[in-house]
Every structure is written in C-alpha cells, then in structure tokens.
TrEMBL record:
GO molecular function, one term: ribosome binding
Gene this chain is encoded by: lepA
InterPro entries per the UniProt record, alphabetical: EF-4, EFG_II, EFG_III/V, EFG_V-like, EFTu-like_2, G_TR_CS, LepA_C_sf, LepA_CTD
Swiss-Prot/TrEMBL catalytic activity: GTP + H2O = GDP + phosphate + H(+)
All copies of domain Tr-type G, residue ranges: 3-184
Recorded GO CC terms: plasma membrane
Stated family: Belongs to the TRAFAC class translation factor GTPase superfamily. Classic translation factor GTPase family. LepA subfamily.
One Pfam family from the record: EFG_III
EC number: 3.6.5.n1
Location in the cell: Cell membrane
Keywords assigned: Cell membrane, Elongation factor, GTP-binding, Hydrolase, Membrane, Nucleotide-binding, Protein biosynthesis
Name of the protein in question: Elongation factor 4
Known function: Required for accurate and efficient protein synthesis under certain stress conditions. May act as a fidelity factor of the translation reaction, by catalyzing a one-codon backward translocation of tRNAs on improperly translocated ribosomes. Back-translocation proceeds from a post-translocation (POST) complex to a pre-translocation (PRE) complex, thus giving elongation factor G a second chance to translocate the tRNAs correctly. Binds to ribosomes in a GTP-dependent manner.
Length: 597
C-alpha cells in the first residue's frame, strides 16, 4: 500500500467557501495552470456557477511535495445544501479524512452539525478549518471557541485560511499530509473498487468514478459489476486533475475513473463493487438507496415530446443517482412521469436541467409527499398522488413522515421561529445556547409543512440569519384530508390535493378563488366548489356570458324584446340541464392550476 496517498473531502454548510478553497489548493499545488484557472473550477455545470452552489460531488487529484516526499492528494468536493446530503454520504465512504469548514464570519451552522455527524459515523479524521479570515467582520477567536467545544480539540488544531487570498493554504496542505491517515492495508490480492459516482458520454458510454480498495486495475481488464452482473472491458483507466487523464493503472488507495463503453441505462449503480471477472471476491459494503421525500409529476408540454422526456430522464439518472421516476398518465395532461426528489431544491435543479440540457418544455405539478395507508384488513399502501388517496368514508389509518431538524439563530429571533413553527404544525424539542450566544433549537414537524415555503419564511422571520438542517424521522398518524374540486358539480381529479385538516378551509378558498380567476365563463352560471370530508366548504359562482340578443332591433313594441330575452333564458336553462358537469376547461387553465406557485 502506498503510504503517500491521502484521500479527503471538504464538508461544510452551504456558502461557506468550499469551492473557493478548493480553487486555492489547486493553484498552490500547480494542478491547474494559472492561465486555465477560473473561479469554481470544480463546478462544471453552468447552473452551479450561476447559483454559486455545488450540486454534484467532484473528485480531483493533486500532487504535493512534503518533507521531500511526493504525496498524492485525492480531494472529493461535496455540496453543502441539505438536499444533496446523499452526495456527501457517498463521498465520505471513499475517503479517510475530512476538512470541516466553518465560516469565521457566521460561525457554526445547522448543516455543519449534520455533515460532522456523518463524518463521525464513518470514523474519519476531522481537521477543523476556519475560512474567510481575511474579512473585516471575521471572528476567529469566538468561532474557534465554538469549534473547540464541538470537536473537543485544542486551538492549535484549528487552521485559519482564506479562500480569497490563499492565506493559510500551505499550512492546510501540510496538515492534510500529516494528520489524515493513508489508506488502510489490504491482504486481498484481487481487485475491488467502490463506485461512488458515474456519468454518461455519448461517445464513451458510462464513465464510473471509483475508489480502489484492493488490488489493481488497468486498461483492457475484463471487469464485472457485482450487483448487475454485467461484464465489460475497461476501455480507459485514468485520474481526474480535474480534466480526465489516462494512466496505465489504478492501485489500491487511489481514486479515479474507468470508461466502460456501456450505453444502456440501469447497469451501473452507486455503491456497486467493480471486480475482475476472473478473480471475483466478496463485494464491498455499498450505500443505502436514496429515499425520495418529495414527489411531483412531470409532463411534456406537448405529448409529441413524451419519448424525448423519457430519454432525458434516463440520461439525467446517469448523473444523478438520487432521482427516481415512474410513468403515469393523466386524463387531462396526458402521459408523463411521477418523479421522486430529495427535497425542494433538488426538484428545482432537476427540472431546470431538463429544460436547459435537453431543451424540453415541461409542466410540473404541485409537489407532494408519500402517505402510508393501512386498511382494516391489514393491507398497507404507500400513496403519493391525491387521486389515490382514500375518499371520505373509507375506513383506514393514515401516517405521514415527520422530520427532525435543527435551527441555529440569534436569540432575538427565537420568538418569530416559535410563531412560524406553530403555523406549520411543528414543535420545539430542545433549546440550547451556543458559546457565541446563538440558540440551537431542535424541532419536529410534518414533512408536508416543509414544502409550504418553510425555508423562505424562516429566512424572512430571522432576517436571513437562521440556518436549518433536517433528517427524516419516523412515520406518525396524519391529520390530513383530501381536498376535491368540483366544476358544475363534476369532480375534476386533476385539482385534487391532500392538505392538513387545520388549513383545509383556507386552502379550499384559495383554490376556488384561483380557479374563479382563470376559468372562462360559460353560457350559463357555473358553480366552482371545494369539498372536504363530503361537505362543500368553499363555493363561488361564475356568472354566465351575457349577450344582448335585442341589439339589432331598432324599434317596435317592447314585447318583441321581451320575447327574445325569454327565448334566451329558456336556451340557457336547457344548456345548463344538458351541460351540467360538462364544462370545457381549456388546457392553459389546467396548467395554471397544476403548476406550483
């Protein structure tokens, strides 16, 4: 085993400077030429650069001379947002240590605690680093005290760096070589590699990124996926610098990529083990499959694009293993896909990538979550579409997922947070005062309430100072109801939703008002109603179209006009009798109602 290999990852709260620090490390090690250097060089997607966030993990190899020895530093840069914590968990299984970044101007944030917990579970070596120390309002002493209490370390263990100026980066590279342990020794002679990510190339097929735990792999080897059983010949073996550079072989402890040439979906999966076909061994412990927490339906704007949408989702799945989807159909919107996401930001990113990378116009329904329905006969069903939710009168028990979260906020905003939690059916489990005077509030809340713009409302209630991290806890009894919408006494299933019982009347009135504003008038008065638990709780009547049938008359007795108006009245009455429940709702009205606000 090469004792000069160091595998590590950078973990932190969102916007704490991970990508900027990685840029300075690449500069200092001369991994990237100065003329080719640019900001966020490891963020390859335009969407990442525009938003200033990391969406996908990115491996890169650096060479560094320490005490006369050449060290190979393998960095895996990770996202910071809670929705992409699955990316972080996969990266941590491929490394021996992490840099825990804490913004010295903001202090410890909620996501810092979450990622730190993941690193401790893996038994990784943790190097605490304070960033943005060059800024005038930096508080290294105060924030350092919080980090010391959190990790139980000494002040000398904490490194001070600036991703902007590069100050402290040489000391950080020295600490990586000295503190992070080399890859473990292996007694297994056969090759085993853990796949932590992959992507798709039109010309080269699936490219897998993996950490070699045992043995050696080189170009031309016949390899096999342990899970799918598919065999292939390695067309190319290489390292990422961050450009892909072919190498003769990858040895135990190294991180790199393999070009498979496979162009069919579903063969490669994250967490799978690659092995030599002629020397199979016990597969490595992989990853738990990502569990979607938010569901939304995606329909092509034109049904002619359905096949293109399917191909786009297949391709996107190759670069985003946490995305899941299944085909569904709607009598109104046609054929589409029910997609599962890890959170609201994940949903937003995926739909934006579909539009940009595949040039598809799509319709997104309002997001929902999965409910567990238990019937008296013991049958248990998972329901994530309102149309499949049991109607009023059906005997069953409903349970929904709850989340366990942590909010870190200045003390003056705790009252606002309490009011916000009450509005979202949440509760406070524990409150703790941190070293810097801020409050750490442990909360619980139904997952469905998180989707009612809880993130945005939290930022507004705390002037942007609060941070939130959460994990899905257990299922609990749900106090929810099905909200149905009737137009001219006909049930329109496309508008059905599952809402909290407390907000049922408010949501019903809002839905009726929105439909009232968008539905074209008919030849007769049209009732728009919202029904909950078998009762109409909101109703509005859309007035009929009015036409002056006597406009062309220029004289004569008044009875002529009266006869025409009576004839019109009878015609409308007949149309109402014949057309009850047959209101023609235009496609654009469905789009306005179904789309998320």
């Amino acid at each position: 085993m090469d004792r000069q290999i160091r595998n590590f990852s950078i973990i932190a709260h969102i916007d704490h400077g991970k990508s900027t620090l990685a840029d300075r490390m690449l500069e200092h090690t001369k991994t990237v030429e100065h003329r080719k250097m640019k900001e966020q060089i490891l963020d390859s997607m335009d969407l990442e650069r525009e938003r200033g966030i990391t969406i996908k993990m990115q491996p890169v190899r650096m060479s560094y001379l320490h005490q006369g020895k050449a060290f190979q530093l393998n960095l895996i840069d990770t996202p910071g947002h809670i929705d992409f914590s699955y990316e972080v968990s996969r990266a941590l299984k491929a490394v021996e240590g992490v840099l825990l970044l804490v913004d010295s101007t903001q202090g410890i944030q909620a996501q810092t605690l979450t990622t730190l917990g993941m690193a401790k579970e893996q038994g990784l070596t943790i190097i605490p680093v304070l960033t943005k120390t060059d800024m005038g309002h930096s508080r290294p002493e105060e924030v350092g005290d919080s980090v010391m209490k959190l990790l139980g370390c000494s002040r000398e263990d904490i490194l001070l760096v600036s991703g902007k100026t590069g100050a402290g980066v040489p000391d950080l590279l020295e600490a990586i070589c000295e503190r992070i342990p080399p890859p473990r020794d292996t007694e297994l002679d056969a090759y085993r590699g853990l796949i932590f990510d992959f992507q798709y190339s039109n010309h080269r097929g699936v490219i897998v990124y993996m950490r070699v735990f045992d043995g050696e792999v080189k170009k031309g080897d016949v390899l096999k996926f342990a899970a799918s059983g598919k065999t292939f010949t390695a067309l190319e073996v290489g390292m990422v610098t961050p450009a892909e550079v072919p190498v003769p072989s990858l040895r135990a402890g190294e991180i790199g990529y393999i070009v498979t040439g496979i162009k069919e979906p579903g063969v490669a999966t994250v967490g799978d083990t690659l092995m030599l076909e002629k020397r199979m061994a016990e597969p490595l412990a992989g990853y738990q499959e990502a569990r979607p927490v938010v569901w939304a339906s995606v329909f092509p704007d034109s049904q002619d694009d359905f096949t293109i949408l399917r191909q786009a989702l297949d391709r996107l799945k190759l670069s985003d293993s946490s995305l899941s989807y299944e085909e569904e159909s709607s009598g109104v919107l046609g054929r589409g896909f029910r997609c599962g996401f890890l959170g609201m930001l994940h949903l937003e990113i995926v739909t934006e990538r579909l539009r940009r990378e595949f040039d598809i116009e799509i319709i997104i329904t309002s997001p929902s979550i999965a409910y567990e329905i238990t019937y008296p006969d013991g049958k248990v069903e998972s329901v994530y579409a309102a149309t499949r939710f049991p109607e009023y009168g059906v005997s069953c028990t409903v349970r929904e997922p709850w989340l366990l979260g942590q909010i870190i906020s200045p003390p003056e905003y705790v009252g606002n947070i309490m009011n916000l939690l009450f509005d979202h059916e949440g509760g406070v489990l524990e409150t703790e005062v941190l070293n810097d005077g801020r409050n750490l509030v442990t909360i619980e809340m139904p997952l469905r309430e998180l989707m009612r713009n809880f993130f945005d409302k939290l930022k507004n209630a705390t002037s942007g100072y609060a941070s939130l991290s959460y994990e899905i806890a257990e299922l609990r009894p749900a106090n929810v109801v099905r909200l149905d919408v009737l137009v001219a006494e006909e049930l329109i299933t496309a508008f059905s939703r599952v809402v909290g019982d407390r907000r049922a009347e408010f949501d019903a009135r809002a839905t009726v008002d929105k439909l009232y504003d968008n539905l074209p008038r008919q030849q007769y008065v049209t009732k728009i109603q919202a029904k909950v638990r078998g009762k109409i709780i909101a109703s509005r009547s859309l007035s009929a179209l009015k036409k002056d049938v006597t406009g062309y008359l220029y004289g004569g007795d008044i009875t002529r006009k009266m006869k025409l108006r009576e004839k019109q009245k009878k015609g409308k009455k007949k149309a109402l009798e014949l057309g009850k429940g047959r209101v023609n709702i235009p496609q654009e009205v469905f789009m306005k109602m179904v789309k998320s606000d």
